[in-house]
Amino acid sequence: MLDADDRATPRFPKEKVQQAKDTIREALQTIRSQHSTALKGIAGAACGGYILFHECCIALDIPSEIYLGLPEKEFIKSSVEFAGKIWVDRFKKLYHVLPVHHLKTDQIQKDKSFSVWEDTNNWMLKDAFANGGLNMTLLALWDGAESDGPGGTKHMVMQARKNDGEVIIIDPKKLTDK
């Protein structure tokens, strides 16, 4: 996700949004050139890399789908709104043009040590491996640091690797400001 304005240690500051988008687009083009089958993107829709990913998929005519662990309004409040109206508008635009899937109650782990974000990561990976099999590639905008809470990017990367998925990491620390 994009950094909140008051984040003490920057991870993905707003100054790097355009470079991140350009890098995501380049990575998607590379992935497409390496596979003979059609691509399908799946991701959440939090402000930052997730929204940029879906926007790049649309620009490259790659079908993508949104996976949300919370109902729309709750998701906006927890994962989009803090970044400002422009990100809420971008979320809503995608929400109304792309297929949207919501985590169902039966997909939530009974073990309360899991969070809704871990459940969502596991759900997306399960669907990705089922639909893409060995061709599944995780494209992660991640600085390699611990997540701020359960179910962050580190969890997703670890789960993908555990299941022998290809993982491509775009490190926001290495992006130049634009």
Structure description:
The model has no long low-confidence stretch (mean pLDDT 89). This protein is an alpha/beta fold. Helix 6 links the parallel strand 4 and strand 5 (166-170). It is globular, with a radius of gyration of 15 Å. It starts with 16 loop residues before the first helix and ends in an 8-residue tail after the last strand. The chain has one domain: Rossmann fold (3-Layer(aba) Sandwich). It has a three-stranded parallel beta sheet, sandwiched between helices. The chain has helices at residues 17-34, 49-59, 72-79, 85-97, 116-132, 153-162, and strands at 41-43, 64-68, 100-102, 137-141, 166-170. It is built from six helices and five strands; from the N terminus they run αβαβααβαβαβ.
Highlighted features:
single chain, 178 residues, alpha/beta, Rossmann fold, three-stranded parallel beta sheet, two-stranded parallel ribbon, 5 strands, globular
**Uncertain ranges:** none
Q: Mean pLDDT, rounded to whole units?
A: 89
**Could you tell me the radius of gyration in angstroms?**
15 Å
- Helix-strand string: HEHEHHEHEHE
Strand order of the largest sheet: 1-2-3
Can you count the helices?
Answer: 6
Percent in helix: 40-55%
- Largest sheet data: 3 strands, parallel
**Amino- and carboxy-terminal Cα gap:** 18 Å
